[in-house]
């Protein structure tokens, strides 16, 4: 029954601070909650107001996921509940309930409730001007005060008014509640120093690093991981990505192979136990005078077991070889699935990512990552787990068959070995990671230099490129030396531990043999078993290093997997229902980087079957309109429609199936001309390919080559001229026969005569098709149904050719400049011809005539 008689106990006052060798409970439990509540409400309120007024909500991707943050919340809630629970318990226990107990419980509960609210506020909001990291000073001060106040209870250790005596049930409960408070506040302060639920770097720095543009998309793969970070960081995420490759889902045959291989692994463990036992039996039979039949049987069984186990240290036996042979199919499955999924993922990434990638670095990361997955699975399943199982089995066997001393020796030796191996290997991680970084740099520079060999030749920069490549090799070798030197140090440490354990166990076993407690065969059993155990244990360090190396090598590949697709199909997106081909841009805004808009409120319509031309200065946004229509990027404002359907709401494949593009910069595959044209429609026949080439005015040129359509075009089509590549690209688009055609400076690389021929071909293929043309030469788009003049991301003028000339605006000015340039070129050509003809004329006779006159 709850009964509150007075604020303090009988014969006590709040003014009494020291009573019976301790702090007066009434004074203590009044002062502490008052200070905590004041700190929570006054300082906390100011702090919360600052967060609400000057802070901003953090993006979810910057908020770290942490179990320790959950522990923080759980402890805070537990402390709040125990304060209220203590008041309820003391009231229900009957007797006097002083007022300070109620005040202590209620004030403390309010203070901790406010602290929990602020903890959640800091989790969700951040002060932009704040350059520090971790919890606010207020929360750390609050937790420090709470922990310090609980430590003040030790001052009253000898006071009978406190719970230290544990003389009755009430004191025991109070002690238990204090213990919860003491441990809870101490943990909160300790965990709060780490601030697990908050970003470990300033928020503005995280935002700035996250911003990527076309020129710098952040594809320095090896630079994204902290050099001193542990390879086990993010272990759960890495294993989660590996799980689909561990189990061959959907393939029953491979699944049975996996189960059978695991069964063989168990058989190997049993064989490893029986080999030293039968070796011991041979020695005992020989020294004990057993019959030949018994000895021969024992030797036969021993040899059979050795055949199954392996002939010597590191040699694989029948079971191991069989398991490795059967595992090949599983390993090939994993290798194929990883490569195919990663290749498909790279093709799904946005144009922005591909414009910023380093091809050599990406390919190197794929190669290392794929091989590392196979190594990782093999080492974990067939090396690490079996070795640990052998260690556990050996300790149990030595304790049961010999005595606890042998088990203790093996345990200490194994523990030291594994601990030092892990510590030293973790220390070596930064050397291995830096070596990968230098390796990536070397391969990236080599690939970049070879891809641009023409530029190297143009500027006689061969020696410069060779020297730059040699510098990267030298940096790689410095990191390689550190890696190999630290490996030698690790191996020597392991040898010392193994040798010490073998010496101690052998001496102890030999002593028991001399004392008559063990037989000679027991010493042989110990020596054989321990050496047999040390052989895989000696490789355990290698296995651990290889697993860690695999994790390091996989980091770059995981970063590739983590690259998110910028342009994604919407949920439940349907196919584009093509009807007439009407294209609409409605109030479109777009920017590659924040703060620099490329397109500003662009609106226009391309009626079905008509041609719209886009003209303007370089960088005005003409090609961006083409890319947006093909949905290489998504617009930031407005929308683009085809036949009234928002292209962001339909599947990308169905959209692009109806659109054909002839780009400004044509790149061909390193294949023959026929297959490059057939790329427009893979199922096309050779006759259809040739018809497309005829329409693109390139058939005759192809037939003039010695190998005709089988002519190899070289890497990126470098064996063909710019005009030939452009015409092959036009033929490829004609073969696709799309309903909507996008021409991005399609004839920019052609001479005047070829351009006229191509224009006639394009007029055929574009007839009755919706066409958007980006043109630099205005003479090529005179016949366009509508011309849009793009300036500074906006449509400055629109109309037909004659209409725009009459306006006398930007288009008319561009037209006059191009005409003047053509006239000056023509006059220059005429003057050059006249000078050549003058040089070819005979000398004049005017001099001789003058002489006669004289």
Automatic annotation (TrEMBL):
Membrane topology: Multi-pass membrane protein
Enzyme class: translocase
Domain ABC transporter residue range list: 583-817
Limits of the ABC transmembrane type-1 domain: 259-549
Compositional bias of kind Low complexity: 818-829, 844-854
Catalysed reaction, written as an equation: coproporphyrin III(in) + ATP + H2O = coproporphyrin III(out) + ADP + phosphate + H(+); pheophorbide a(in) + ATP + H2O = pheophorbide a(out) + ADP + phosphate + H(+); protoporphyrin IX(in) + ATP + H2O = protoporphyrin IX(out) + ADP + phosphate + H(+); coproporphyrin I(in) + ATP + H2O = coproporphyrin I(out) + ADP + phosphate + H(+)
Residue stretches spanning the membrane: 27-46, 67-89, 101-119, 139-158, 178-195, 252-279, 299-319, 376-399, 405-425, 496-514, 526-544
Gene Ontology cellular-component annotations: early endosome membrane; endoplasmic reticulum membrane; extracellular region; Golgi membrane; lysosomal membrane; melanosome membrane; mitochondrial outer membrane; multivesicular body membrane
UniProt keyword terms in alphabetical order: ATP-binding, Cell membrane, Disulfide bond, Endoplasmic reticulum, Endosome, Golgi apparatus, Lysosome, Membrane, Mitochondrion, Mitochondrion outer membrane, Nucleotide-binding, Secreted, Translocase, Transmembrane, Transmembrane helix, Transport
Compositional bias annotation for Basic and acidic residues: 830-839
EC number from the UniProt entry: 7.6.2.5
Localization of this protein: Cell membrane; Early endosome membrane; Endoplasmic reticulum membrane; Endosome membrane
Region (Disordered): 817-854
UniProt key word Cell division: no
Main localization, broad class: membrane
One Pfam family, short name: ABC_membrane
One GO MF term attached to the UniProt entry: ATP binding
Subunit structure, interactors included: Homodimer.
PANTHER family attached to this UniProt entry: ATP-BINDING CASSETTE SUB-FAMILY B, ATP-BINDING CASSETTE SUB-FAMILY B MEMBER 6
Family: Belongs to the ABC transporter superfamily. ABCB family. Heavy Metal importer (TC 3.A.1.210) subfamily.
Protein name: ATP-binding cassette sub-family B member 6
